[in-house]
TrEMBL record:
<protein>
    <recommendedName>
        <fullName>Low molecular weight protein antigen 6 PH domain-containing protein</fullName>
    </recommendedName>
</protein>
<keyword id="KW-0472">Membrane</keyword>
<feature type="domain" description="Low molecular weight protein antigen 6 PH">
    <location>
        <begin position="79"/>
        <end position="121"/>
    </location>
</feature>
<feature type="transmembrane region" description="Helical">
    <location>
        <begin position="60"/>
        <end position="78"/>
    </location>
</feature>
<feature type="transmembrane region" description="Helical">
    <location>
        <begin position="34"/>
        <end position="54"/>
    </location>
</feature>
<keyword id="KW-1133">Transmembrane helix</keyword>
<feature type="region of interest" description="Disordered">
    <location>
        <begin position="1"/>
        <end position="25"/>
    </location>
</feature>
<feature type="transmembrane region" description="Helical">
    <location>
        <begin position="198"/>
        <end position="216"/>
    </location>
</feature>
<feature type="compositionally biased region" description="Pro residues">
    <location>
        <begin position="1"/>
        <end position="11"/>
    </location>
</feature>
<dbReference type="InterPro" id="IPR019692">
    <property type="entry name" value="CFP-6_PH"/>
</dbReference>
<keyword id="KW-0812">Transmembrane</keyword>
<dbReference type="Pfam" id="PF10756">
    <property type="entry name" value="bPH_6"/>
</dbReference>
Amino acid sequence: MSPDVPQPSVPEPQGDTGGEPGLRDARTLRPGSAIGVGVVGALSGLALLVPGLLTSPRSWALISTVVLGLVLLWLFVVRPCVVIHAEGIRLVNPLRVVDVSWPVISEVRSRWALELFVEGRRYTAWGVPADPGRPRYGRGLMSVGANKVRGKGTIEMPSKPKVEAQVVAAEVEERRTADRRRKDGRTPRIAHQTWDPVSVGLLLAATAFFVIGTFVA
């Protein structure tokens, strides 16, 4: 039997990780609106869930529907984010996690959300949507947006920092270029996408509970 080929892994932390284990100098980006919607949705869900649990007889259809709604709210609104760190970027999507280091990124775009192109594959960051009122970043830069474009390949930056695809794409491009100029080969070449077992398991459990509560109980 041939020996196992070791798979690349995200480097161990060597400094402040910003709350992300295994990522050096990490910074998590998530729109403030996602947190706001999540808080409002969670409070509304609890306002329906608590009376449903305390009322006799219990309405399992209502309870399972609320539980499924809360899980979907967390998965598709609160959980998605982008983590920028010293070696690259991590895209945390509803059910998957994508780890990409700077050397393997061939192109950065912003259409409806932040998009990274790696060896012909496109990875989309659910947690960083684009502002439709601003120019796209990357190809088609001049085709959309009401804001003025300053020079070639640059966009007018907002007066107040916002987590939007155009701004994050510009930072990714800048850090990718800076890493290329180092030319020391120290940054590992990483590009892999994995399912998140906790998210998948939670969705399957909530869906099964909904089916049982609605059609069986």
